[in-house]
Amino acid sequence: MVKNLGLLLPSVRLAGTVSAKLFAEDPVGFTAKVAEKFRMSTNPVLHRGARLLSGGLKRISGSPLDAYCDAGEFTAGIQWAERQRRVSRREAALVRVHREKLERLRHEFPARIPMRRAHTVVHYLTNSLPYTNSGYTLRSQKVLQAQNAADIHATALTRLGYPLVIGQFSRSQSDVVGGVTYHRMLPKDFPTSLTRRDTRATQELVDFCREQGAEALQTTTDYTNAIVVAEAAAILGIPWVYEVRGELESTWASRRPPEAVDSEFYALAHAAETRAMLAASHVVTLSEVSKRDVMARGVPEERITVVPNAVDDAQLEWVPDPARIAELRSSLGIAEDQIVVGAITSVVEYEGLDTLIRAAELLPDKYVFVIVGDGTDRTRLEAMCSAKNVHFVGKKPQSEVLDWYALVDVFVIPRKDLAVTRKVTPIKGLQAQALGTPVVASDLPALREVTGGVETYVIPESPEDLARGIADVAGTRNARGVEWARQRSWSANSRRYQSIFLG
Asked: Where's the Glycosyltransferase subfamily 4-like N-terminal domain (predicted)?
């Protein structure tokens, strides 16, 4: 108790400092994140708070500078501010932050260090279990477990201030989850500027690597992680691996109008990611689609390894509990003869759940639609639902997720056709395939690759084609999907990491 209190009090002080500095830098962005966190809470008081905060956003986001920054035109926004006789304190803070963001985006990476054998690897992560439950953290957990299974001593250090920067208090200086140790970078104070934060994070990472006897580093996209890791690796004289899990600029553009791809931020972010890939000792991608993109940026094929999303070997042998599935059906009022169409996903715009809702209106009442997950697009999507057969059940604990997969008779991935969705391979379809559940997915290169080309593929953003695809596979089991999932196991990935670090 006393030990926990000794950690809690400094954490409370640091949390206050972090919140004040993040709000001062970007009141609109900070308030939006807090409002979204409140909205996702089960506490009704916090739900009301989310509505109040959302209303407050409209009052504080009226400056032209906000529009420039949101459009990715940082330099134009700074120039606008410089032309004004007077700017508010908030606008002055935004100018300072975006000057630093431009500096980060133009960062020149240290010279590449060739890959060599490494038995001890330190991972630098954006977030992790148990404080964040997402595709990112679940993959990180599996990567670390796979490396440890390959006789590589792998441990992790999370970014500066995490988990306080997402509004959670750390229970200790480290957490052990499934045999993986996650260490926390919680300094006594939180630097004011982005540049100082990067410098502090680099030094903390260097000190931690020396304590661990690290022989290599590994991090994930985006370039802000790469900056810290590349600088630390240069100081230590050790190689570093860059795992490309997404494409920052495309994800950013997916939430904006089409002209976002012509913005300053898009161009600079693309260039920054390319420099990071070229500077890394080795690059890991999640798919052949992504590998081809990395090669197009100039990285030689021999410096790239595909380590795909995969399923646990144990999951391939998992047998659902009929009583538990019956309980879930009953809780949602689903009759025995009804067909459950499900999506287990982040509820964000590019996932195309609006297409699924429109498809639901085209199918008879025997089809029931269940969306497991939460996100920024949920309020809009719920407002679209005129049918009573669409259930939003929110995010579920990882310990329950397999039960929700087993509830589903047809699994859907109705993603929109965007640059990011054409390249990024989600794990969710593979988990459904492991259970023999037929998958209906948008016909996109990344989705065809991750599901092995053995499922049903439909025209993206076409409710009619999605409805036809669902009706075609309802009541079937896909044995080819099970066979494909068996080829994509984490034990196989363990051998891939072994070849990278141990040769």
From this structure: 135-309
Q: Would the CA dihedral through 327, 328, 331, 337 be positive or negative?
A: negative
Q: Are strands 174-177 and 180-185 parallel, antiparallel or unpaired?
A: antiparallel
Nearest 10 degrees: Cα torsion 442, 138, 183, 396: 100
Task: List 120's β-bridge partners, or say none.
Answer: 153
Task: Tally Cβ neighbours within 10 Å of residue 85.
Answer: 4
* Nearest one of 165, 162, 34, 26 to 97, comparing CA atoms: 26
| pLDDT at res. 65 | 96
In this prediction, residue 2 carries a pLDDT of 43
String of DSSP letters for 469-487: HHHHHTT---HHHHHHHHH
Task: For 284-314, give one letter per residue: b (16+ CB within 10 A) or e.
Answer: bbbbebbbebbbebebeeebbbbbbbbbbee
- What does DSSP assign to residue 221? S
Which regions in the chain score pLDDT beneath 50? Answer: 1-3
Kindly list the distances between the CA atom of residue 42 and the CA atoms of 32, 46, 47, 478, in Å, as whole numbers in the listed order: 18, 8, 8, 37
pLDDT of 227: 99
Sign of the CA dihedral running 273, 279, 284, 285: positive
- Residue carrying structure tokens 């169409």: 341
**Neighbour-count burial of 61, counting CB atoms closer than 10 A to its CB (0-12 exposed, 13-18 middle, 19+ buried):** middle
CA pair distance 313, 331, nearest whole angstrom = 30
The dihedral region occupied by 382, where left means phi > 0, alpha psi between -120 and 50, and beta the remainder, is alpha
Structure tokens at 132: 């964040």
Please, what's the b/e burial string for 323-338 (b: 16 or more CB within 10 A of its CB; e: otherwise)? eebeebbeeeebeeeb
CATH fold match for the domains 120-310+494-502 and 320-487: yes
250 token code pair: 């495309």
Q: How many residues does the chain have?
A: 503
Neighbouring-strand partners of residue 390: 369
In three-state secondary structure terms, 395 is: coil
DSSP state of 458: E
The pLDDT assigned to 1 comes to 43
> So what's the pLDDT on residue 152?
98
Tens digit of pLDDT for each residue in 379-389?
Answer: 999 999 876 79
Q: Tokens for 445? A: 């290169």
Please name the amino acid found at residue 12: V
Closest to 276 measured CA to CA, from 290, 297, 260, 293: 297
Per-domain boundaries in the chain? 2-105, 120-310+494-502, 320-487
CATH 3.40.50.2000 fits 320-487, yes or no: yes
Topology (CATH level 3) of domain 120-310+494-502: Rossmann fold (3.40.50)
Cα angle for residues 65, 379, 370 (degrees, 5° grid):
140
